[in-house]
Amino acid sequence: MKKILLLGAGLSASTLIRYLLENAQENDWILRVGDFTEEPVKKKLNGHARGESLQFDVHNAIQLDQEVKESDLVISLLPAKLHYLVAQSCIRNKKSMVTASYVSKEIQKMDKDAKANGVLLMNEVGVDPGIDHMSAMQVINRIKGDGDKLISFESATGGLVAPSYDNNPWRYKFTWAPRNVVLAGQGGARFYHNGKFKYIPYHKLFERTETIEIPGYGQFEVYANRDSLQYREAYGLSDLMTMFRGTIRRPGFCEAWNLLVQLGATDDSYVMDDSENMTYRVFTNSFLAYNIVDPVESKIARYLGISEDSPLMKKLEWLGLFDDTKKIGIHGLTPAQCLQHILEQKWQLDPGDKDMIVMEHQFDYLHIGSHRKRFSTMVVIGEDQVHTAMSITVGLPVAITAKLILQGKIGLKGVQIPVLSEVYDPVMKELGNYGIKFEERDFKLS
Amino acid sequence: MKKILLLGAGLSASTLIRYLLENAQENDWILRVGDFTEEPVKKKLNGHARGESLQFDVHNAIQLDQEVKESDLVISLLPAKLHYLVAQSCIRNKKSMVTASYVSKEIQKMDKDAKANGVLLMNEVGVDPGIDHMSAMQVINRIKGDGDKLISFESATGGLVAPSYDNNPWRYKFTWAPRNVVLAGQGGARFYHNGKFKYIPYHKLFERTETIEIPGYGQFEVYANRDSLQYREAYGLSDLMTMFRGTIRRPGFCEAWNLLVQLGATDDSYVMDDSENMTYRVFTNSFLAYNIVDPVESKIARYLGISEDSPLMKKLEWLGLFDDTKKIGIHGLTPAQCLQHILEQKWQLDPGDKDMIVMEHQFDYLHIGSHRKRFSTMVVIGEDQVHTAMSITVGLPVAITAKLILQGKIGLKGVQIPVLSEVYDPVMKELGNYGIKFEERDFKLS
After folding, report:
1. Measured between alpha carbons, how far is A362 from A197 in angstroms, rounded to an integer?
2. Which of A169, A320, A357, B354 is the most buried (most CB within 10 A)?
3. Complex prediction ipTM
4. Where are the domains of chain B?
């Protein structure tokens, strides 16, 4: 019997737990799930004979070591900044770990220690990062295998509301941790474009979008995502001329979101004065110069260079940003936290709404002298509000990777991301059984 | 005999050292000056009988404790983030410390420990912060003493080139640490305006300027500086409706500087790819979208929304930002470091140039039913490129404060800034002997 320790049972854990429980009997697993509050975990386990819940605090080092020691494999879905604590315990106790998060600097430094202790720290096996790496590597290896030369790789992913439920002016609802959505992009973005290093600072990120069209789903817009440069090497593509990773939204979202960025409303670096008594209108006004004559609406339109009766203003108004009756009501919030509070009233999924994950890769390559382009596209619609597209596409690759490790089918050690075929081939194959598949289009450019 | 330990002997130390040596005989002081390289210190001490130099490394805890232990008072002109190391040693060795820097979070936490050990940690006694606090508090106390009610306080300071030498298109030269100039404002700014909390994010800071006029010196512009809110309480003005601190530049500077901010060229958060081989033009182009048709000049003008033949473009061109022959030539630089490198070629003081410190306070107050406004203005021109206005106005208040502490005339303990009359009255009085004086204008508003 093998024991899997899952730490963190938030939004994206549902499908992961379902998969592991469904496969527990056959593989003789016990799934032990710890979270800060135990009740929601119990609900997710639903009395399954092979499921165990516990109240768990990652900062309790004794409990952490005890639990890790008694397990055969650890999966961490805790907030990304806490993974390193789990990883340290995994190294001490010689257990492997799986996460869906970006490799942090702290984790990267553990590579040597992990290898010395025979431990695998497998990261970035969710959807983005995760399925993006794995699906792209499959296509890249096919292109290479055909003797063709890849010259450009661009990839974008977005978590959105499914088309039938896409019914607000922003064409966006929260299908993922709202805090992460509000803070997205704050480090700016770096990438290569035709051999040139390119950088976009945060305050320009949502202006520099590109449009893509996905057959059957219409148009989307893409803004640049974090640091694409590091993946040139990770993918074994150091001579690649264009390497770009992006985030997908529906058209118009970025232009409107940029207004909030320009205002300073996404700032998370300081606590606002008297946030508890601030109305939404006072919040908005705090970013505008004092002026007793003009209303907030006129000031913001002038400040942001938009027309007072533009669709952009309508989007701001729809959020309630000019409402002088509703109060933030919570003490000690940063602007980003106040904004999140306001957005959470408006961007919640309605009962019955389903979410959608959209991913598109674009590969430019040379094939016997001609320049060709290949699109590879995935769209996943959620089952319901428990097994969302986000929960499915994050949870399944994590779960399948965990299974492969427990079955001894992945022999890697150290800090890894899923860019080797021994990982991505079996994971992508099994994801196909769950309907997570890519459609390809390929045509000649010149 | 008393021993003064001065740590850090950079640009602003010259006048401080001169003052302490000139007063050493009369007060029976020895001045011991430590810096990472000893040679420049020797030059500054010029063989004075009461001066001693040493090679000093603040990260050498044994040396630090040894030196602090043998001194009677410590002055730190080290980079601001290192003061806390000196302060820790001062507390261990029960010695007081003086700095010209903002109270850091680390220093603020030492208040209790400092008091328990009978130690004074006196900060913010340079020019800004420093003379601004002291001169403002004098006026505020006079206004209060007259039974009048202060309703608004605005204050601004700038380090500039003196009018006769103000001869480049930016009307600016480096008279202070270039790195601090490049990074200035990155935390945004917070202040009160007519009872409303106001916040400006970094990417809007240089757009939200106000113009002031100083008699005899012409027009200047002011942008908001850091967090003004905390000084409401420190000044004993919790009910004040407007509290604003700003930085002074010559007109046109901020609009042009904002272009570099918008571009992302002041970012200090990541290292640029291949910075050693980058020409200035490639540096500029790295912030612009790839496009093989348009030259960098057209792209940047369109991106920043300015005309290609505007004075703003001329300012960028004058810096050399479109030069494709000059290379950065240094590996591993951030954008801010690359920009600093470029600016240092153009914004250096020419031989014979003098610098200037400009400070202006504006007080609105109620006097027997009428609304009045008082301006209080200081202009200091440097003697030469050793005793610059910056060195004079930072060094003298630090030196005078140190003297008062050694003479037992300041009895304060704990973490302090100079907002009590036992400090600012004698310091301001003596500064007057050195020509550091404020001119006042006062008139009825309504």
Report:
1. 19
2. A357
3. 0.87
4. 2-123, 271-333
